[in-house]
TrEMBL record:
PANTHER family: HALOACID DEHALOGENASE, TYPE II (AFU_ORTHOLOGUE AFUA_2G07750)-RELATED, HYDROLASE, HALOACID DELAHOGENASE-RELATED
Source organism per UniProt: Deinococcus radiopugnans
Classification via InterPro entries: 2-HAD (IPR006328), HAD-like_sf (IPR036412), HAD_sf (IPR023214), PGP-like_dom2 (IPR023198), S-2-haloacid_dehalogenase (IPR051540)
Domain of life: Bacteria
Protein name, per record: 2-haloacid dehalogenase
Pfam families cross-referenced by the UniProt entry: Hydrolase
Length: 224
């Protein structure tokens, strides 16, 4: 069977720093974007742990309100709309297309697997410039479980007909790597600014995206 590489989107393939200008205008600080996304992930992890499913976009809005409260600023509806539009139009990292081309040339089936709702995922793929390399695009939203919940990866496997023994997750987040490993997938950690592996649960492969792609294809050759 053709090996499947599940691809995380936000920060892994798409560059969230494109949103910095919005946060500078609203908060006077580009670091506010990093804080917002950290709060978003914290909320997602918290509600996933509690077994309370929440839409990832709704969690993004809640994280924005929390950021405003923490900084003593009122968040306007216009800013929320601009942020929502910005997330849908995120550009790819400069090395994203190269990495995906290496994976495709090596025989991998590429499937996006994201916490984003399907409408957001579809918009991101349309504008990011690599949709022609993607074989499938799966939001975990219908499965009612966000990554890193095990059921999210099982949902991706079920939707695509893939099997754990010949599937990988490629991601820039340690929590995503941990969830995929717990679900039985092999894992590849993409080094992005500000991200680090969990020393207690390292990925099978780690490095910049093109290097990870080459190493992953080498592993596939070794498995054949």
């Amino acid at each position: 069977m053709t090996p499947t590489v599940f691809l995380d989107m936000n920060e892994t393939l798409l560059d969230l720093s494109a949103l910095d200008g919005l946060f500078v205008a609203a908060f006077g600080d580009p670091g506010a974007r990093t804080q917002w996304f950290g709060l978003l992930l914290q909320l997602a992890l918290t509600h996933t742990l509690l077994g309370e499913y929440r839409d990832f976009s709704a969690l993004g809005g809640a994280a924005l309100r929390a950021l405003g409260e923490a900084r003593g600023l009122e968040i306007s509806g216009q800013f929320q709309d601009e942020l929502s539009a910005g997330v849908r139009m995120l550009p790819a990292h400069p090395d994203t297309r190269e990495g995906l081309e290496i994976l495709r040339a090596g025989g991998a089936r590429l499937v996006c697997l994201t916490n984003n709702p399907q409408s957001v995922l579809d918009a991101q793929l349309e504008g990011a410039g690599f949709a022609d390399l993607i074989d499938g695009a799966v939001s975990v939203d219908p499965g009612q479980m966000l990554k890193p919940g095990r059921a999210a990866y099982e949902y991706g496997l079920s939707r695509t007909g893939a099997h754990t023994h010949d599937s990988w997750l490629l991601a820039a987040h340690a929590w995503d790597i941990a969830g995929a490993k717990a679900a039985g997938l092999r894992t590849a950690f993409v080094e992005r600014p500000g991200q680090a592996q969990n020393p207690l649960m390292r990925a099978d492969i780690a490095g910049p995206l093109p290097a990870v792609a080459r190493a992953l294809i080498g592993r596939l050759g070794g498995q054949a």
